[in-house]
Amino acid sequence: MNPNPAPLRPDADAEIAALIQTLHATGQRLEALTAGEVDAVADHNGRMFLLQNAQDHLRDSEAAKQAAVLNALPAHIALLDSQGVVISVNEAWRRFARENELHGPEFAIGVNYLEVCDRAQGEGALNAQQAAAGIRAVLSGESTRFSFEYDCPSPTEPRQFLMTVAPMAEDRRNGAVVMHLNVTAQRQSEDMLRRLSDELQRVNEHLEETVRKRTVELAAARDVAEAANRAKSNFLANMSHEIRTPMNAIIGMTHLLRRDATTPDQAGRLDKIDVAGRHLLAIINDILDMSKIEAGRLQLESVDFHLSAILDSVLAIIAEPARAKGLQVEIDLDDAPGWLRGDPTRLRQALLNYAGNAIKFTESGVITLRVLLQEDTGDSVLLRFEVEDTGIGIEPDKMERLFHAFEQADTSTTRKYGGTGLGLVISRRLALLMGGEAGAETRPGVGSRFWFTARLQHGRGVMTVLSDTDTRNAEAQLRQHHAGARLLLAEDDPINREVAEELLHGVGLVVETAADGEEALKMAQSRDYDLILMDMQMPVMGGLDATRALRALDAWRSKPILAMTASAFDEDRRVCQEAGMNDFIAKPVEPGVFYATLDKWLPVRRAPVPEAPPIHPEVVPIAALPDEAAGALARLAIAPGINVARGLAALRGDAGLFIELLGRFAEAHADDMTRLSASLAEGDQDTARRLVHTLKGTGATLGAEHLAVLAGRLDDRFRDSAGVALRDEEIKAETDAIKLELSLLNAALPPRLPIPVPLAITPEQQAALRAVLKQLAPLLAQGDTAAAKLFKANLTLLQAALGPDAKQIERQMAAFDYQGALGTLSDLLQRMR
User: How far apart are CA 509 and CA 651, in angstroms?
Assistant: First the structure.
């Protein structure tokens, strides 16, 4: 027998406990039968005899029942008295004795079980001694239960038994119950289950190891494939940038040569070079977009825009080629909402890819741009964009190749239609990025319908852009309440200053300007202003430091100071408020919002100053612009990334001034990225970021929205660098994109008119010249931007009469060096005398 008791299974424990409980009850009943005494209830012997017979009968009946219960149990059971003598055994005990030839069926009754165990010899002696010790512990009350498992092999097979000893009743002096249960089959099953479990664990471990190795191999293969794909995409991106750089030079130099062309043939050839260069640039852009998409580097914007602006832009671009082929273009908006939030540039790109193909493959008929509302969840909308044509259609067996990269329906060497095959796949990838899908339906000889869907948010443009009527109302309100108010504008960018002055002078406000915060602080200490407009990022002293210094002055503790900056993050607004600013005007400035904000903060004047008659020349209508300027405005209207309406709104509809300022902006900032690289090389991160910030704000103000977005992304790189200095090579992709955008902007603008040699002028012209110069001098002395308007209105006369001096004065006024321009004019007048 095993000297160390083995733990029982929970179900075996429960079974044995139930058996012991039954035996307890049996012992109690037997005790009651054997120890009970019959009370002398009556003296009559007959009654005593009857009662005794009845009690004997009951005792025999109960004993028979208990014996039947014990005999039905599978365990070998013996009942011991308090001395360890066997007083009863069940049939299972007797059967075991017979089968194992142990002295016959009655061998154990009357035998002291403890003595039998003590006399045991041989292999079972140790188990017998352990059994005797356990029985004594139970009989003496030292233990409430004892059990252990032991081996008891037969001549033919191994066997295992479980011995359990428990008190016969709660009073342990009445004896004990001893049970032996054959658990061989159970242990064999447990061993088999354990072996199966071990084997299963080994199999699982083997499978896990196999899966782990395979996973590692697959991960390695995936990493290799992704690395190869990234290498390919990076190569395409780098090559695209490398090609875009010389393309920038080609387009720019073509523009310069075309400006100086002397014969129609030269101009025609240069036009063809320009068209070919832009076509090549479009292909390069497609490759760059494709590489960005595959590399996961294409980031979608999330801005508010109006759906009609997308369709109008696409329509403007395809209008001329459609007219050339005699095609009719129609637009169907269905129930699509007007204001949306998403990436308008990528939507326009995808739609333009479809529309360009429709123009290319349609010889006659109609092209329809359609937008359908498919779902509106309240928070977002799912729109379906379609371009339907009446063109050649596509054969069914070629349809599945259409949306694969570098695939086209016509793959022959004598293709009639050109292209790279990237447009459709880019449109599908963009649709997927915007939560949609793309596809096509076509019938050869009848036409095609190409479509894509996009998940967009509802826009809130109505909340940030005022209508023309609202703008006029805000302007009238400001003029009525605050005409003659004096403002100080702190702005380091000359063009932004001129735009702001144009808006402020237009409503009768008096404005003086400062080029940095330090100058603004000095001017605010020496002069009286009703309000200060303060840019945040300026050289020498920024707007935040200047505001803190102003708030320390008694005169400026409560006067309004408004931030006017291209930074529109909530964090920037919070910083402005903490510095002491009252409100925040974001660039690009919306005139209506700008006027309403000024009306809110300017103190109402008790006696409005009568507005002086304007000395500004009349706004030049678009129809009256010179042909070159009108053509430039038309090109700008259809150029991707240029919002002419926004630029004109910022300048109160003055188309001539818009083109002039945009040209000066493109010329003044053409070398910004070179200056940025130099600043980074010198470790001057502040100057580098200020260049980008100015480019972002001024570009947005003049409607150069794509350029502003590119500069904004670079501005975000500086913001997110967390104090770590950026290196020039880390932002090469961004700076290259900005360089190219500036080059394209320059190419779309008209050339600056050459200054003619001074000519002899008539007496009438001399009189007019003297009148203009007499009016110009006091404007320059006052630093009034009206001087530039007056100069431009009489440019032909001034250039004819003054020659190179006219260019000098114009250049000085463009840099807002009014004192220098006044000096040049004074010298000129002295020479003329």
Answer: 15
- Alpha carbon distance 354, 372 (integer Å): 16
Contact 372, 384 (CB under 8 A): yes
- Mode of pairing for the β-strands spanning 160-167 and 176-182: antiparallel
| Alpha-carbon 412 to chain mean position | 43
Q: 235: buried, middle or exposed (CB in 10 Å: 19+, 13-18, 0-12)?
A: exposed
CA distance 233 to 725: 27
Helix (H) or strand (E) holding 456: strand 447-458
Query: Over the stretch 718-753, which tens digit does the pLDDT of each residue have?
Result: 877 766 778 878 888 888 888 888 877 877 776 654
Would you call 680 exposed, middle or buried from its count of C-beta atoms within 10 A (0-12, 13-18, 19+)? buried
| H/E element, 330 | strand 328-332
Question: What does residue 108 show for φ and ψ, rounded to 5 degrees?
Answer: -100, -20
> How many helical (H) and strand (E) elements, i.e. helices and strands, does the chain have?
29, 17
d(CA 156, CA 352): 93
Contact 409, 440 (CB under 8 A): no
Q: Report the share of the chain in percent with pLDDT over 70.
A: 70
Question: Which residue in 338, 573, 335, 332 sits closest to 451, CA to CA?
Answer: 332
Give the relative orientation of helices 264-294 and 423-433 as an angle to the nearest 10 degrees: 40
Query: Nearest CA to 291 among 239, 243, 343, 247?
Result: 239
Tens-place pLDDT, residues 458-480: 876 433 344 555 667 788 888 88
Structure tokens at 567: 């930074």
